[in-house]
Write a structure and sequence with these properties.
single chain; mainly alpha; elongated
């Protein structure tokens, strides 16, 4: 698949994933906390999950594919050996952290979500949002050849 098409798919996924989490953090979460209403949060999540999870999967697949196109094979991940590989490795670390937050929320918080647990859920939401924004910013460095430390 041509690199440009992979990039477009990746950017569309990022628009949905990061944009959805920004909407959740900035517009939905304050209302949820003000009204102490887990239902508002759960209603948003049920709707968003239908497009958010596929967007995340598209980003992971297209991101790995683009990394391979850039010559950053799996055996080089986390070696921080060149600027592009550094971006790939940092994005993967942030992705794994995002997955840990998702597992934590789905195993420990969402099954027993109540007004009392809303601050814990808010921490998860804001953390995943910031991780998504950080991945977006890191991805922008590929255009300039990666990150040099």
């Amino acid at each position: 698949m041509p690199h440009h098409l992979l990039l477009i798919l990746h950017l569309l996924g990022a628009a949905i994933w990061v944009g959805g989490h920004l909407i959740l953090s900035i517009a939905i979460l304050p209302e949820v906390l003000r009204k102490q209403s887990p239902e508002i949060l759960l209603n948003f999540e049920r709707k968003y999950e239908k497009i958010g999870i596929p967007a995340l999967i598209i980003m992971v697949v297209s991101g790995v594919w683009m990394a391979l196109n850039f010559g950053v094979g799996v055996s080089h991940w986390f070696s921080f050996s060149n600027p592009i590989e550094t971006v790939v490795s940092l994005k993967l670390l942030l992705l794994f952290t995002t997955v840990l937050f998702a597992l934590s929320a789905n195993i420990f918080v969402l099954p027993k979500l109540s007004p009392k647990l809303l601050p814990v859920m808010a921490f998860h939401i804001i953390s995943v949002t910031l991780l998504g924004v950080a991945m977006l910013v890191l991805g922008s460095f590929v255009r300039y050849g990666g990150l040099n430390f």
